[in-house]
Design a protein that fits this description.
Chain A has 559 residues and is α/β, with parallel strands linked by helices. Chain A is built from 18 helices and 21 strands. Chains A, B: It holds the Pfam family Aldedh.
Chain lengths: 559, 559
């Protein structure tokens, strides 16, 4: 039943919940978690994480994942092995049984107490942000600054957003309502009705390599806040950030009087293919996934017993028509292409540029001039190795590096800007590269599909009108997480907006300052639309949370 | 874009929209449409409908459905042929092309104007309620009074609820928001963001035989209000109520300046199997369906390109433990079993009764006494043919009659109360029957699956505790649209509530007056839960509407 159960955690977090609910509606900037590392004390070195045993006291544990790579232990993209051990459940049934047993107590807590417990989990994660930042850095290859922010406070923002969104949806109906229907001269009919949000069942989070917390927290916390136990199946290369998350969640749950098995880690040994096994289990009623389109589509096709929320791959396009701030545009574009070596699902890939060049505040610029100027902007941004490494991070896996080498050889098209190896002082084994620019002509070349990593294509088009149609087609056919355009023409702007509404992709227009197309802010921007093949859902709208629970009504006559 | 476009229909219906939004949150009794036939002038005779040509001026029409039965024309369960003609599209592609062409204009209208147009459609349907009542009566077999109310104002209530629910969800995000992020001593980052609800695509409504409007309007109006064109594929035996609906919708759309092809009728000639063809079309992104579990499950399994909302079949259980109002309980139960000859997805089927009898305000009653008293209550309620016909209506199809005859022969178990043929003055060919009661013993008999129609099972159980567990199991395994219980024990009540929350079915407790377990009221009761196999969705919560559109964001720097 959804009566409010008094609890110290509710008192502690009611103000945050209220402020977050207001922020969700207003969509102005809002965050509960400072994004500056200065707010969190000393950074945490990798050495403090290495060699840990995160056994979590989980049921069904019959062995370890890690610490060595041959047992599934992680290796930092910056070089060192992490050497951390995680629990391994030889029989996943033990995890499902534990989740089933944990469910009734968590379901009975009701939306408010669940929200408060979730906010406490996030608060404790927040307090340990330096540790999470280092864990994210050394599993994803993100540079320290980005790993801290995106993997720490910004991921926590997205988690809180999901908690609050789920709370709001679960409380749309009053817990109790009276119903009085007039009957003319006779006494009215009177009923009293109670509405209870009931969880759907066990949820499965399948984590990704590049943003284990940022992309993992929305699904994890939405499911949790809606009363569902969650099995967390991390990406084999990025276990630590989610294992730490599970550890904190289990600690808070137990302290608050719930079974810690409401949240369980399902780490796997090499070659186990555990995600498929778990996803098809009849207990699993919700799956959240971020990763390749291939496996995302497999989940959508096969995990039929579950609601499946996927964020897959797409091809992000920028239409460049004209600009009133040429320098600002180039700087903004260069940053967007360089950030985390383009290893974001939101990084622009195809830049569509009129063959005849464009009008700018610095006069007409030819196609060749724009390419050269963009190259110079990238060189300026990334000329200094230390600064470059702080922006680029490390290449996350050998596949990305291999594609970059192919680009360098001209296999994708004319190499306009060659990538450069960047040295990282503390990590001599880190593989860090500046982005490559490849030139294509739409009159001659087929546009590439997703090419994840630091390779962008500058595509000569006949006209802006053609670019807009290409944007529309690419979004429809390949999917896209983001789109952007630069134009000073109201007419072109309207056409681009129309194409984006039609194809279902969100649009950033004329960004020339410190906001980038690849970044979205919780409580304000939606991440993805769910309206094109790149994702079937968005962080975080009502559709992302409203089906994670169902409402059961109990009605009685009122006399 | 979602700017508000001034329109006379908005002025006309803003007050209704606002009142309905308030009602949706409060869940008290509320309706925009009087339920008394007296509010609507003279009844409409069947003869005024017979022989009509409802051609709708639709694209792609190359022939007729009807008027004769061999061309798909309907025959009233009360006897007469309807002899109405509908348009037939030989190539459904013509309908899809028309829907595609109609979509952009409807999408551009925005949530508010769409809601206003939908409310105008409902208002015109409402004004013609007597005509809709007669159309529903002579396609479903509902008695005149019920056909008028359930097929008219109550269906309109559910339609309006869906409109308003979709409007509320589409406007959760502001149309425009400013975002200002402080940057310490530097100027803040500022963006302006616009959020636009974009429709998902063409929707398909697959209508049912017994409640074409009541079960059809939620999906139809939810999809429509969210900007999706809708193909309406009625049940071959109940075309007229939805064809009239489509006619009104097309008229209002055209008058309001939209393409009438936002709503299209897809009637079929005999043996065409059109629902399957339409449901698998790649344009179809939403399917709403009410009907058999077999076809509902087929849709869920095969219409993979679409969101599929189904209401299928289940087995509704009543646990009878004890009562403080024995007479009221019997009267309420008798009415619930008799109404529309049990041909409701919400009719109780299995009455679980302790073998040892029960405690009542009239003392202890043995199992046999309760069965006899329930039989007497049914006899009293249905003893007079005219009154009985007014409650029972007609048997909707030969399959129901056949099952009843099997029950009469004892094929389902011991016949406790035999059905009786009821004569209907104006319709000598109408097949009208009182309900059968069949006795089973849980110690001996397997409980039956869904047995749609006027057959209920009184099941002897060892104990109330066993009954509660049986309720839980039946809901989980067979699904259920409703559950009910009678008890004076707080402990039993808690156990039943717990079982219903756990298995995911809504519960009516101790109904002894004029509210019945089979009836739900829009704006207050949810119909179904979506949490058990009988349905994957509910009328009408956020989950029913929130995925029928997606949100696209456009953001710009604000200077």
């Amino acid at each position: 039943m959804s009566q409010e159960i008094p609890h110290e955690l509710i008192d502690r977090h009611q103000a945050t919940l209220d402020a977050a609910l207001a922020a969700l509606a207003a969509r102005d900037y809002w965050s509960a978690y400072p994004e500056s590392p200065r707010a969190y004390g000393e950074p945490v070195g990798l050495d403090t994480l290495q060699g840990r045993e995160l056994l979590l006291d989980q049921p069904g544990t019959d062995g370890l994942v890690g610490p060595g790579p041959e047992q599934g232990g992680e290796q930092s993209p910056f070089g060192p092995a992490l050497g951390v051990s995680y629990p391994h459940a030889g029989d996943p049934e033990a995890l499902f049984a534990a989740a089933r047993a944990a469910r009734p107590g968590w379901a009975a807590a009701g939306p408010l107490l669940r929200a408060a417990v979730c906010i406490e989990i996030l608060a404790r994660i927040n307090a340990r942000s330096p540790e999470f930042g280092t864990a994210v850095m050394h599993t994803t290859g993100q540079a320290a600054g980005m790993a801290f922010q995106a993997g720490g406070p910004h991921a926590q923002d997205r988690g809180l957003e999901a908690v609050v969104c789920a709370y709001a949806e679960q409380t749309r109906l009053p817990a109790r309502a009276e119903w009085t229907k007039p009957q003319g001269k006779r006494d009215p009919l009177r009923l009293v009705k109670e509405f209870t949000a009931v969880p759907r069942g066990t949820a499965l989070l399948i984590g990704c390599n590049t943003f284990p917390t940022w992309n993992g927290y929305p699904g994890l916390f939405a499911s949790l806040a809606a009363g569902n136990p969650v099995l967390v199946k991390p990406h084999p290369r990025a276990v630590l950030p989610l294992a730490l998350t599970v550890a904190v969640a289990r600690e808070v749950l137990a302290e608050a009087g719930f079974s810690p098995d409401v949240v369980l880690l399902a780490a796997e040994q090499p070659g186990e293919g555990l995600a498929k096994t778990l996803a098809l289990h009849p207990d699993v009623r919700i799956v959240d996934y971020t990763g390749s389109s291939e496996f995302g589509n497999w989940l959508e096709d096969n995990a039929r017993q579950a609601l499946v929320y996927t964020e897959k791959a797409g091809v992000n396009t920028i239409v460049v028509d004209s600009t009133a701030d040429y320098a600002g545009m180039l700087g903004n574009l260069a940053f967007s292409l360089a950030l985390y070596s383009g290893q974001m699902c939101t990084t622009p890939q195809n830049l569509l540029l009129p063959r005849a060049g464009l009008e700018t505040d610095q006069g007409h610029k030819t196609f060749a001039e724009v390419v050269a100027d963009l190259g110079r902007s990238l060189d300026r941004l990334l000329g200094d190795d230390a600064r470059a490494a702080g922006l680029l991070g490390a290449i996350v896996n050998p596949g990305v590096l291999q594609r970059l080498e192919q680009a360098e050889k001209g296999e994708y098209g004319e190499l306009l800007l060659a990538p450069r190896a960047v040295a990282v002082p503390d990590f001599p084994d880190a593989v860090v590269r500046t982005p490559a620019l490849v030139g294509l002509d739409i009159a001659r070349d087929a546009l590439p599909g997703e090419c994840f990593g630091p390779i962008s294509f500058v595509v000569a088009v006949d006209s802006t009108a053609q670019a807009v149609e290409q944007l529309r087609d690419t979004v429809r056919e390949r999917g896209a997480m983001t789109a952007a355009a630069y134009t000073t023409s109201a007419e072109v702007e309207a056409a681009v907006v129309d194409a984006c509404l039609d194809a279902g992709v969100s649009l950033s227009l004329n960004l020339t300052g410190q906001v980038y197309v690849n970044q979205t802010a919780a409580f304000s921007d939606l991440h993805g639309t769910g309206a094109n093949p790149a994702a079937n859902s968005a962080y975080c709208d009502a559709a992302f949370v409203a089906s994670r629970f169902r409402v059961v009504e109990v009605r009685r006559e009122l006399r």
